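Hi R.,

Quick one: here's the Ribosomally synthesized peptide with SipW-like signal peptide sequence you asked about.
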Amino acid sequence: MNAESTSAPRSRPSVLRRMLSAAAAIAVATFLALLGTGTSYALWNGEAVVDASSVSSGNVGLTINGAAAYALTGLDAERLAPGRSQAASLAIANTGTTRLSVTVSGTEVLAQSNSLAGFLTASLVPAADCAVATFVPAPLAGFTTTAAPVVLEPGETRQFCLAISLNAAAPPAAQGGGATFAMAINAVQVR
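And here's the predicted structure, written out as tokens:
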């Protein structure tokens, strides 16, 4: 029995030593692998300093005949008769620092007498086409130019003609009538 009892305790420490040796070998191999990876990783890193910079935003500005809100003058309504038109000049300017896409986004009739507004049409064309014969009128209420925007560069001013026409079929009841309207000119930044 002495031989058996001495051999059993000796085999357990050998197994334990082998396991510890294997674990130590795996730990050393993992450490070396990570050490090699860390060295490779460092080869791909770099750093640089960026000098101080400033960033500023642009701004949007639009004027009509030099004003942000312009009361239309130059239309001689006294001479507006069925089938005739009157035109007024508008200078639309981009006073901001970004390009603008400009349209008439809507026209609203604010007041009227003798149901005149229903017989009025409007047109907005470049000043070069200011001859009233070149206008293609659209109903005043709800008049827009959104299908044909005009792009204005920063600081650019363009001349336009706004024509108001009275339908040739306007009834005698519209005679002596009046209409007050507001026209919204919309400007959107263009990239």
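The chain is about 20% helix and 30% strand.

Cheers,
M.
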